[in-house]
Input
Amino acid sequence: MSKRYDSIIIGGGHNGLICAAYLAKAGRKVLVLEKRHVLGGAAVSEELYPGFTFSVASYVVSLFRPHIIRELNLAKHGYEIIPMDCSFLPLPNGDSLARWADPQRSRREIARFSQKDAETYPEFSRVMTHMGKLAKAVIDHPAPDITSMNPRELANIFRLGRTFKGLGPELLHLNTKLVTMSALDFLDLWFESDVLKAPMAVSGIIGTFQGVRSPGTAYVLLHHYMGQLDGSFRSWGFSKGGTGGVSLACASSARSYGAEIRTEAAVQQVLIKNGEARGVVLENGDEILANSIVSNLDPNRTYLKMVGESELDDEVVKEIKRYKLRGSSGKVNLALDRVPEFSCRPGDGDHIRGDVAIAPSIDYLEKAFDQAKYGEFSTRPYINAVIPSLTDPSVAPPGKHILSCFVQYAPYHIKEGAENWPKYREAFGDAVVDTMAEYIPGLKDMILYRQVLTPWDIEQTMGLTEGNIFQGELSLEQLLFQRPLAGYAKYKTSINKLWMCGSGTHPGGGIMGAGGELCAKTMLNARAI
Amino acid sequence: MPIKSPFFPRTSQLCTSMYWKEWAGYHAVSSYGTLHDVEYFAFRYSAGLLDITPLFKYKITGTDSASFLSRVMVRDISQLKIGRVTYCCWCNEDGKVVDDGTVMRRGENEFFVTSADPCFSWFSRFTRGYDVEVNDISDQIAGLAVQGPTSRDILKKFCDVDLDSLKFFSTTSAKVKDFEIYISRTGYTGDLGYELWIENENALTLWDLIMDYGKSYDLRPAGLAALDVTRVEAGLILKDVDYYNALHTLIEDRMSSPYEISLGWTVNLERDPFNGQAALKAEKQAGSNWAIVGLDIDWVEIEELYNRHGLPPEVGSTAWRDSIPIYVDSSMNKQIGYATSGTWSPILKKNIALATIEKKYDQIDSKLQIEVTVEHKRHTVTATVSKPQFYNPERKTSNPVKS
Output
């Protein structure tokens, strides 16, 4: 037994740290407990090979809420984002498509494949900016409870309704399409060229166990379009020093408000008495008491590991077991001894200073999904690669580079069972390197170090159940007032005084910080702490 | 017609956007690409290479050079040690600023002065009675600024001097290949950085060396648009934007004393006579009328204004330099000053400006109102007064710790 805290936060991911910062800023006595030796959860930077700092898991930033930066003074604490200027698509036939921040340059590039698409492209951006504004009204507030008659809830619903209404009929119809259609069908409303549609459609499948033709994926597309950097929507950037830089800025801010943060302090269990969370038990046996507990872990782990079935109603256990995690992606991080050059567009120019998509056609993506459906990883996967060292020299030695590959599909549930993933880890890594080497001649000779993260590895190291990078799929039935569970949303759980603040809560995944922020604000508003 | 700097054969090849402007009679690159932001991020995260040849450059020699410069400048240059640089301004007899620049002491009796305006005539007016020679070397010496966190590492690759121990605002000569360059640890970005001075005939060789060694350090050529964002963040004022040369203005209202343009700290009042001394003493006593301050413009209020029009907030892509009215309150009845330049600061995530306001309103953290035009309509939003220097990273002045 030791001193008592107002709140203990289990897990030092960026959301946990943000939650801690807000609570501490409001004068609460807060303790963050992180299992690993590094902070950040999936937004983590680690020097895995001398001189190379990898964004081990999450690798780009866009959705981070700008008001959190202001309210927690994160710029002062080292939150630094370098925008990406280009999305590059190399093609197997030696051609390529680069989409730039410069609209005229993009138009000319796209026109090589379809003049119509090239001119429609800004119209699409305009519509998505509208939708993004709507999304802002949704993601910057707790999702209203549609079953409640509480005046405050009704006011929230009304506010949201008014924002929707403000879109006008045309955009409202489109919005309905957006939440129900597949990413591909949605893009088909605008575009004709496969070469343009494929790299755009992938935004709809990232982190989900769906294909670009699966209904509902258009929403995930929007989720990736809601990003905002410095007032401009849809922009993505690198965090200086890797995505761990974001987490460290949040930690530094939290500490400045008085929060206490411990690493290598793994929580075994939440202490529950009479249906109420009273504290935590660490793996080393220590008990720490607090007036409230906040879990930054995913819903599955929070309910089934930290609380345990014996403390839960049968119905909750059933629901939480049905909650869809099913991780579908992996990560291959490479340290290279020189700039990787693409044969279709050689050189170290600006085209490779953003993200590079290996998504040559819709069929390619769908075939990659086909393999995953039957419990295999894609032998020719969709890859989103970045070379952050070209814009942020602090992450690699001079002249050396990092090639970071987000890979889909790597289903958690492989045929032989997830626990057999280690047997296939290197084969999976080889498939990724082979795929990249088709576009980057000589890639294999440049590799100084390789890290392969399968969804099983992601679960083991980061504690994300089934390796789901969003702590639960972003499918419609698991969003808003149903994230994670209908009836237990709004950062509350079925256990009194136990809260959740991770990506498994509204508004979901990505380095957004909204879960941590809204959880803290909800707790403070409810005077629950 | 503007002339070409010695680096033109290279810069013209690289400037694919064709975005040029005129700078002191030279063609100068505004931005190499159609968007300048990658060049800005190079200054802040790796290194940017900027042609600063258009600055005016003077070599001051003779046994009286130190006392002569002390007579001309508001700062007591006789105190400047060899190998050191100082930044200051110079005034007319009425204590109004003529120009600002750096003074480097290369030897007991040799100085190197840079300025924004041509100053040969002005300096020459005060040489009588001094053993001093003023040489305009503006067109013989080329200048290159290498600015950003990796700038030191790049220069170390080909300079034969110990840059790790070269302090902020110090200078050194260095041998590069078969020629000599003069390096000052100075710059206009408010970051770690160096300015390199070189004879015109060796200019291209130096450019190529830097570009070559810079490749591994993500160096890229950068233009004035990116520079402008960094200098506003650093709170560094610009002649003809934030103040005017007293010799070139038609009306007294446009003249400023050093105290009024945040350069009071460069004035050494109590010493032998210097230009403007009496007027500056009197102003010090009586108080100044104006002050340059920093303004932190409230982003939430801007967002709300745009939102009222159904628009997402817009951030200008480059730094601006229009005169924007500053008011006491949102009634817009009482104007107490004007912002002269400003920018969205990507690194600070703030909308910032430099403004000249009535001295009595210059308290740090006080709230003023700045005019904002949204959808052709004028509004005001809150602007919080701060020091002009918004950004000042430790690396700017620090030296690597020796292990």
